[in-house]
Amino acid sequence: MASINTRLLRHLALFLFLAPLTDSSLASKINSQSTFKSQSSSIYIVHANHLAKPPHFATLGHWYTSMVATHSPRPVADHSTRILFTYDTVMHGFAVKLTGDEARRMSEAVGVSGVHEDRQLHYMTTRTPGFLGLDPGFGAWQDTDFGDGVIIGFVDSGIWPESPSFSDTGLGPVRPSWRGKCVGAADYDASLCNNKLVGAKAFTAGPMPSPRDWYGHGTHVASTAAGSEVRDIGIDMFARGTARGVAPKAKVAMYMVSSLSTSQIAAAIDAAVKDGVDIISISIADDAPTPFYNDIVSIAVFGAERAGVFVVLAGGNEGPKASTVKNAAPWMTTVGAGTVDRLFPASLNLGDGTVLIGQSLYTMKANGTNMVPLVINPCVKKTLTPDQIMGKIVVCIFSPEDKGEDDDDQGQGVDIVEIVQRAGAAGLVQVLISSWSPDDALADDTATFPCLGLGYAAGKKLRAYMASEPYPVASLSFACETVIGANRAPMVASFSSRGPNPVVPELLKPDVIAPGVNILAASPGDAGSQDIPRNGTYLLEGGTSMATPHIAGVAALIKKKHSDWTPAMIRSALITTASTLDNTGREILDNGLVDPNGNAKVTVATPFATGAGHVRPQLAMDPGLVYDAGVRDYVDFLCALNYTTEQLRRFAPDMATCTRELPGGGAGLNYPSFVVVFDGRTDVRTLMRTVTKVSQEAEMYNVTVKAPEHVKVTVTPAALEFKEQYEKRSYTVEFRSQVTAGNTKAAEAEWEFGHIIWENEKHQVRSPVAFTWKTNN
Questions:
Q1: In the chain, at which end, N or C, are there fewer CB atoms within 10 A of the end residue's CB?
Q2: pTM of the shown model
Q3: So what's the architecture of 26-117 in CATH?
């Protein structure tokens, strides 16, 4: 299973989608959406330039009060009581009730940047649709009617049909061509299916196969991709709101596999294609790289692609080690995981004054003034005893690579929080080490007990302090709040598997990244529980498992708008429009790496971590050009890998002959990215690509290239002119290495990167390029 199977990444939720409130136009300091009724009073937000505060005001508060008294005179003794809120962190200013005339006068005051009428916003607990730029009022959701009618099949652990995320309120019936159905079982009434959940089957060797999800994984990913709108969802005190999937009106078909055997998975894929799904989402991966001809899942997905079904798969959770990416065939869309712009900050205050920032969902505020002893504990059941930890803050050091001495070790078979709480500890700090990064760190079950999670860098500082101090002490601080937009995002999740492709290095994988850290979505209920309702709950999970359904949802939106596109065209649209920049406009970072001394380091992410970049649904709806490929192209690709006739027959029995030599070998496939290998025999590599114009109007595209300084890249032609929709044009790229005997490349494993962009005023079609030099052995 390609999700992070650890309780450190659960029970955390709440994503807020806040529409922008400020108007940057100096000519309109008043919010353009404000009508400013002259007599009636409303609440307004006065956005102030705090640097413009006149020096005779002792504080900003005094200045704000003076503004109110001057521009909104009222017969009150203290105008400061009229100020409802003040803002001093994410912005500066205050909220106050004003009439329209008063607001207009206030907007003209010196130092006022803007005046904005307060308005009701929509909260989204699944923050990721908003983070991806999806908005109910315009753009991709409006253009595609939220993916209405597109059917996404999930090969996963089953589904909890009672969850409100699978309500069919407002949805029409499934299309007449749909051949799927719901197969009931003792614990699953087939009548629970509806116009949202249109299919549910179990592929299991058990005596009573049931599609009901008792594990939770399938329910979570299905609601992430296609969950219906559900209001008033949240976790405890952390901002309730509306949850929805990436394609909220798409339909769901679940193909439950229990043992994750390739036989079950292949059967599920087969049934999904037979039933008539449009998209298949598979958050499952093999542990070891396998040649495609020996990979049953790869072969099954090849068949699905041949039938016109777009298949998206998880890239794996073995990062940040190189060459760990899974599901790396060219007919698969392979997804890595990134972070989102939301944190649950809490802090550990050390006795030497150091403050370490972590994350927590503990629901009781604390100011961190009570210092208590710190103790590192192995955090296995036999050591979490009152004589060891009572009255102390317990520090647990976790590594995902550690197997543990038994099932109880490191929380694998026990609830660490419950045991620590029962033993009388004052708090718990969970430190994630090894390949984990700070943005992956979240404490488990923190709602009822004071605990937080720390990432690698903060954990290293904590351990250094405890090693240097004979009697280490600390306190915990909890603000009980969610912070949106304060952190750079996305960053590549440290666990996300990396390239280069371990099966075919000449093919760049992963393809893209999507949100995969702290994703809130539906979870199973419990018919016999007093705590968990029958209709389920909502939990937070992380992994490339959670990134994958985001891409499935985006693909459903594309499919709705472009029903005639091939899977390769959809994949190309996702790749060539992906972003390499984060929410600050800077390059996406990879903070999951560690230097030779074991210190965490933050570097710019390479395409081996991000693929082409972070998915952008709105741009993927209209990519301008796409790189298409079909069965014959993939067979030629396999021929370039020297597959035998027998091996080719496993994919395409009717095309098991090699009819042409693919220029450039495996790297010559008409893929939206490039991998250039200078192998020591030649310093020139020439590759060809063909693009198809999918926009309707006539267009001219010009090329721009970025490459390492010791590589000369020549694209011929340098401009492409198109007149008709679906018109094709080909181009060649000559990559010439200028490395000389006096300018020798470093080790064989060294890679460098660049890009090729075809663009005009409306479209930018970007292909990442990876370069490496190999010696001629």
A1: C
A2: 0.81
A3: 2-Layer Sandwich (3.30)
**How many angstroms separate the most distant Cα atoms in the chain?**
92
Catalytic residue among 116, 217, 220, 562: 217
The catalytic position among 11, 34, 92, 156 is 156
Burial of 326 (0-12, 13-18, 19+ CB in 10 A): buried
Residues of the chain with CATH 3.50.30.30: 345-480
What fold does the segment set 146-340+490-595 form as a domain? Rossmann fold (3.40.50)
In the set 210, 545, 579, 767, the catalytic residue is 545
The verdict on whether 156 is a catalytic residue reads yes
Angle at 762 (CA atoms; ends 759, 763), nearest 5 degrees = 45
Judge whether 42 counts as a catalytic residue: no
Task: Clarify whether 217 is annotated catalytic.
Answer: yes
For residue range 232-287, list pLDDT tens digits in order: 776 664 535 678 999 999 999 999 998 888 888 998 999 999 999 999 999 998 87
CATH 3.30.70.80 in the chain, residue ranges: 26-117
**98 or 444, higher pLDDT:** 98
- Spatial distance between the Cα atoms of 545 and 538, rounded to a whole number of angstroms: 16
- Which residue in the block uniquely carries the two structure tokens 């090894």? 434
Q: What is the DSSP letter of 188?
A: B
Tokens at 184, concatenated: 């009931």
CATH assignment of 624-629+670-773, given 2.60.40.2310, 3.60.15.10, 2.40.40.10, 3.40.50.620? Answer: 2.60.40.2310
Residue whose tokens read 């995320």: 165
Ramachandran category for residue 68: left, alpha or beta (phi over 0 → left; psi -120 to 50 → alpha)? alpha
Strands (E), 371-503: 372-377, 393-398, 427-432, 451-454, 473-478, 483-484, 491-492
Give the fold, CATH level 3, of 345-480. Answer: Glucose Oxidase; domain 1 (3.50.30)
pLDDT digits (tens, 9 = 90+) for 595-616: 555 555 678 999 999 999 999 9
Alpha-carbon torsion, ordered 741, 745, 749, 750, to 10 deg: -170
Chain region(s) in the chain for CATH 3.40.50.200: 146-340+490-595
Residues paired with residue 99 on neighbouring β-strands, in sequence order: 41
